[in-house]
Amino acid sequence: MQHSSLIERVNGILARYRRHLALVLIPALTLAGLIGGLTTAALLVAAATQLIILLWVTGYGSSRAEAADDAPTVKSRDHLDDVLANLPPNTQSAALVVRIDSAARIKDMHGQRLSLALQDALGQQLARALREQDHFCLLSDDGFGVALCPQRSVDVGAVLSIAQRIQTRLSQPFRFEGLTLWPSVSVGFCLSPRAAALNGIGMLDAAQQAAAKALNSGPGGISSYSVVDFPAAVSADTIGGLRKALETGEIHAFFQPQVRTATGEVSGFEALARWRHPERGLISPAEFLPQIEAAGLAANLATCMLRDAMTTLAKLDAAGYRVPTISVNLSADELRNPRLADEISWELDRNDLTPDRLTVEILETVVADSDEDVAVRNIARLAGLGCGIDLDDFGTGHASIANIRRFAVGRIKIDRSFVTRMHEDEDQQRMVSAILSMARHLEVLTLAEGVECAEEQVMLAQMGCHHLQGYAIARPMPAEDLVGWLDAHNAALACGEPWCEDSEQQKTASRA
Question: How far apart are CA 200 and CA 189, in angstroms?
């Protein structure tokens, strides 16, 4: 047993470092042949030896296990649940569930043996599509569960990229006893443990619900988990607490600056909901916003955000700070309030503000799904009043160019998933360039969300993006901090200093 273990250990070391060994052995053999004056037969032996080494390096003829040295191994469902439920501090993960399209039909047509062989083959392909640190398990005859390796930040763009890579890898032709199938899979994923917990389930269970939705939407579907799609029954006590928080001002607006790329001047603020709980402190929006949606309090939240935004803008005007616009997000439910346009008009009049000082942000998915209903009429009325219309999270939905015109969209907000680390990713750069090119031809302004470093800010400026928003400019802040931030920002501009939060990083990026 010890002898066998030693051999396995040596084989493992050789497999891991075979490319490095080849870099030494092949040149050494070649040099020996040239200098040593070897005979023709000896040179042929040396050449054959080099060929064998090359085949060894590339893994030709190796077993499936050897080809998957760096791939994760199959774990148990309990193991994945444990990984997702016990993430290290300040890390995030995501749960994905992969379902084989038309699995029942394949089993009925071709039998249990082929069905099991297909699942085995797809499991091997899935292992190759994942990183060594990721985890996956079998869920049933037609599914796999995946838990991504915990890391500092996991966003929807990264998870979508992984889901698409899985779909591509698992769509390879499958051959079994003379029969060839072209499988496809649907993927559901969950990014938020809090969203899953609201329904009393784990992340993997949430991803299973999303995968069922993706499976029903057609072959090769991808769907994310949302408590709006899978609402939980919110207790009366929870609803009462949320209603009280909205009425007493515990839930109120924070404001994040938006700046002109060319000059650094403030072009507006976006109002973002925050909950300052008297006992729990600042509660994440990811926790309470889904509860508000599920409790049917979206219209109350919109009223609260509009009131705070208009009041804050009027106070800045009175203090001598001219901020051109303030932006407020409106969900599909909020847009279906038949009194929305009248309420906004009244709030503007009450604060002596013209309609062009308010920008309404609408999700791209809302625009794509809207038909001739109350939401459409409200958007048209707000545009007719003179309010700005921003298309939020652009690139994540399916809004057509016709809808951009139809809803009088004045500016598109490029989703953070395209912006994050774009200075290091040429594919991201091409995507952003395509969006900016389209916007120029449509004569629509652009704003990049989620700008988190000076390198991204510099690249977006060079590419012609009009406005920027993100932590590189400033984090969301309460209304009482706006005057101090504006003073510091304007002073930096007047002195010609960099205007992102990390000025040393900004200077370095500008010189690059």
Answer: 17
- Among residues 393, 391, 373, 394, the alpha carbon closest in space to that of 383 is found at 391
Q: CA dist 384 to 51, 341, 361, 381, Å?
A: 74, 10, 15, 5
Tokens linked to 201: 């389930």
- Classify residue 494 as exposed, middle or buried by CB count within 10 Å of its CB (0-12, 13-18, 19+): exposed
DSSP class per residue in 6-52: HHHHHHHHHHHHHHHHHHHHHHHHHHHHHHTT--HHHHHHHHHHHHH
Return the structure tokens found at 390.
């921003």
Q: What is the pLDDT of residues 324-357, one digit of tens each?
A: 999 999 887 788 778 888 889 999 999 999 999 9
**pLDDT (0 to 100) of residue 57:** 47
Reported pTM: 0.58
453 vs 424: CA distance, rounded Å:
12
d(CA 316, CA 313): 5
The two three-digit tokens of residue 213, written as one number: 């939705």
Give the number of other Cβ atoms within 10 Å of residue 356's Cβ: 13
Report pLDDT for 408. 84
Q: Which two tokens stand for residue 143?
A: 């599914």
Neighbours of 308 (CB within 10 A): 21
